[in-house]
Amino acid sequence: MQVQVYLFLAGRCEEAIDFYKKTLGAEVMMLMRFKDSPEPPQPDMIPPGSEDKVMHTCLRIGDTMVMASDGRCEGAPSFQGFSLSLTVADEAEADRVFAALAEGGQIQMPLTKTFWSPRFGMLSDRFGVGWMVSVAARSS
Fold it and tell me: Could you tell me the fold of the domain covering 84-135?
């Protein structure tokens, strides 16, 4: 069994792809637009003029695959009740990634030392996706 993340970005998927490529080094493994689908979407699925929007994409972020779509292209995405947890190698990388993801977003807990990590912080990025950034604990 495998559980994977699938983000519905309500019409902002392409912008999110570019953002995650820049901030996290995401690599686009696959991308299909609504206009490229072998079966056209139902008329009530997406608004007219959304043919160039992303029907499905798969991104590699580190060792993880994250899938995404523009969904029904409804406007502002709303993510609640979950966060993506990103573990990085060191404090400098945590600082860089946290600052990049926070640009245009909202910090819930600034990066700080905790009993489980030399750096841990929580934020929502500009798309409303929650992130927890931490440095892997060093073994003693």
Answer: 3.30.720
